[in-house]
Design a protein that fits this description.
315 residues; alpha/beta; TIM Barrel
Length: 315
């Protein structure tokens, strides 16, 4: 495993990280989930991601239970807040009240004293940014949070957060968690340049486009044992199950075959070509998937291959 600094911070995280969205606490049995997490740790993954909203805390519980057998200082643990956790008017967003209650609830579920990274799971237009960042800064001073992050914030929102932090002498955010893969590249235009300017690293989720970049959905066939076969998840990949997209996936598979690597390995190596990206966040549901995914850290794509991929994606 290789490790990269997270933005301008001194924190080093594995190039491949493991998340619990759509998997742990729901579609994957606890025993298999724990086996997968143990395999990730054995292979050198030190970066484990969750959120309060992932099955209302079940994702956090399963992940933290599996990690409890390892020294706390040996891994990086995250959680998030923003999305509704109840029906009340204050059960959502990034107010001081909601962030405080959700962080404390997450720490209690995970049975830890602190999280390494706390993400603002989305931008909250109803709460002043200074209120949110002040709350996180208070928890950083208390030792309950080590680093602040955001998820799916625009370049303008990231710039706003940096300006507010500097104005009030608060801890700056050091990481953004956006969606990024071969089929969704929106962060390249503005988010990455702004992040590089302010020393903010990317930890990208959905690097395999909800499994589309594994090639298993070619022909628009959805395997019965795949996560996409579940009605509650299927809508996340519907936009990618189009003939033109799947044709490009087929061409990418040919490139991977010629390089004697798998398509997921190619897709992850392509992501890791970006120096501003600290880690690609995978959603493995069994140990063998983790074993396959970590191979990407050993693959360096030359300019000729990158150019060929660009041609396929552009067409």
């Amino acid at each position: 495993m290789k490790y990269r600094r997270l933005g301008r911070s001194g924190l080093k995280v594995s190039e491949i990280s493991l998340g619990s969205w759509l998997t742990y606490g729901k579609t994957v049995e606890d025993n298999l989930a724990e086996q997968t997490i143990h395999k990730a740790y054995e292979l050198g993954i030190n970066f484990f991601d969750s959120a309060n909203v992932y099955e209302h805390g079940e994702g956090e519980r399963v992940m933290s239970t599996a990690l409890r057998s390892y020294p706390r200082e040996s891994y990086v643990l995250t959680t998030k807040a923003f999305w509704p956790m109840g029906d009340g008017p204050n059960d959502r967003g990034l107010s001081r009240k909601h962030v405080t209650e959700q962080l404390n609830a997450s720490l209690k579920r995970m049975k830890v004293d602190y999280v390494d990274i706390f993400y603002c799971h989305r931008y909250d237009p109803e709460t002043p940014v200074d209120e949110t960042l002040r709350t996180i800064d208070d928890f950083i001073r208390q030792g309950k949070i080590l680093y602040a992050g955001v998820s799916e914030w625009t370049a303008a929102q990231i710039e706003e957060a940096v300006g507010v932090a500097d104005k009030y002498l608060l801890d700056r955010i050091v990481v953004n968690q956006p969606q990024y893969n071969m089929l969704n590249r929106y962060i390249e235009k503005e988010v990455i340049p702004v992040s590089e300017k302010y020393g903010i690293g990317q930890v990208v989720f959905s690097p395999l486009a909800q499994g589309v970049l594994t090639g298993k959905y070619n022909g628009q066939n959805i395997p019965k044992d795949s996560r996409a076969a579940q009605s509650s998840i299927n809508h996340f990949i519907n936009n990618w199950l189009q003939d033109d997209v799947l044709a490009r996936v087929g061409q990418l598979s040919k490139v991977a075959n010629e390089l004697n690597i798998s398509l997921p390995t190619l897709a992850l190596a392509w992501i890791l070509r970006q120096p501003n990206i600290a880690s690609a966040l995978i959603g493995a549901s069994r140990p063998s998937q983790v074993e396959e995914n970590v191979k990407a850290t050993e693959v360096v794509l030359d300019e000729q291959v990158i150019s060929r991929i660009e041609d396929i994606l552009a067409n």
